[in-house]
Design goal:
- With 100 residues, the protein is α+β, with helices and mostly antiparallel strands.
- It has a single domain (3-99), classed as NE0471 N-terminal domain-like (2-Layer Sandwich).
- It has 4 helices and 7 strands; from the N terminus they run βββαααβββαβ.
- The strands form 2 sheets. The protein has a 4-stranded antiparallel beta sheet with strand order 1-2-3-7. It has a 3-stranded antiparallel beta sheet with strand order 4-5-6.
- The longest helix has 6 residues, at 32-37.
- It is globular and about 40 Å long.
- The structure holds zinc ion (ZN).
- The site of zinc ion has 6 residues, from helix 2.
Length: 100
């Protein structure tokens, strides 16, 4: 698989998931909860209590406020609780996907 040539043509919120249409016409879906839970930023990595065990997890933490692409390799997701996560396209691609 050539990750370099793949890019998202469209990113859409579909209920509790992020749906991505890729340049090879495949579609992948990733739940917001999973994306937030696996955030690799310094803050999340050093958190004593994993997010999914903390109280506000099901509230605003997994609700996306905004999405911006970062260069040609990642998307930055801003969450309702003020946090933001940078997710590499490669990780979005590794989610189960289906042909369109
Ligand atoms: Zn984080």
């Amino acid at each position: 698989m050539q990750m370099q040539t793949l890019r998202p043509l469209e990113m859409r919120r579909v209920e509790d998931k992020l749906r991505v249409l890729w340049s090879d016409q495949t579609v992948s879906e990733c739940s917001w909860a999973d994306l937030r839970k696996t955030c690799r930023c310094a803050v999340c990595l050093e958190m004593k209590t994993p997010l999914h065990e903390s109280q506000n997890y099901y509230a605003r933490a997994i609700r996306p406020r905004d999405m911006t692409t970062v260069g040609n390799y990642a998307v930055e997701i801003s969450w309702e609780d003020g946090h933001s996560s940078i997710v590499a396209f490669e990780r979005l691609r590794s989610a189960p996907h289906e042909n369109q």
